[in-house]
Amino acid sequence: DGGLAVIEDKKIPDRATPVTPPGSLSAANFSQHCTACQLCVSVCTNHVLRPSGDLHTFMQPEVSYERGYCRPECVKCSEVCPTGAIRPITKADKTAIQVGHAVLIQENCIVNRDGVTCGNCARHCPTQAILMVAKDPNDPDSPQLPVVNEEKCIGCGACENLCPSRPFSAIYVEGHERHRNI
Asked: Which of 4, 67, 76, 134 is least enclosed by beta carbons within 10 angstroms?
């Protein structure tokens, strides 16, 4: 038609457990100690942290992967938190902290839905927790679909952020009540 395609904004998935920043130890620790000072939000260069609109956590930072993802090399939020809601961590610590894990929704994946080749989630996963495997194991030419290794996933959200599926990503991060070390 000669015009530009309409680009639909991503919608926030309905997470059973919210994702809290690395260094916060758990959702309970974070909500108990956070004073909503917004220092961590102001230093988040990838725009992953934003003020919550939820009445239970109003103005406390929440992790949102629609605009960016939590880069494994960035620890700025842990350096500025004055209350211990986010404890200081090193870059090495951060790559070993699992704040959540990726969950795949097969019917949202454009490989299944639109019949195209993708693999964006696997290409950009910093821990190689996502592998592309043949949809039909007996046919090496069948489309490749992502498979998540939950043990390796740190919950950074690169997969969710960079997934081209709209309005909901085919892959999203489900938070952990208590962070785990991998």
From this structure: 4
The answer to whether 165 and 108 have CB atoms below 8 angstroms apart is yes
b/e string for 65-100 if b means 16 or more Cβ within 10 A?
Answer: bbebbbbbebbbbbebbeeebbbebeeeebbebbbb
Q: How many Cα atoms occupy the beta-carbon half-sphere of 90 within 13 Å?
A: 2
Identify whether the C-beta of residue 94 lies closer than 8 Å to the C-beta of residue 43: no
* 122 contact partners, CB below 8 Å, separation of at least 6: 130, 131, 132, 146
Q: Which residues of the chain have pLDDT under 70?
A: 1-3, 5
State residue 168 phi and psi, 5-degree precision.
Answer: -105, 140
The Cα 111–Cα 119 span in angstroms is 9
Look at residue 33 and give its three-state secondary structure: helix
Would you tell me how many other CB atoms lie within 10 Å of the CB of residue 180?
A: 14
CA-closest candidate to residue 181, choices 89, 84, 99, 103: 99
Phi-psi label, residue 84: left if phi above 0, alpha if psi -120 to 50, beta otherwise: left
Instruction: Read off the pLDDT of residues 82-118 as tens digits, 9 standing for 90 and up.
Output: 999 999 999 999 999 999 999 999 999 999 999 999 9
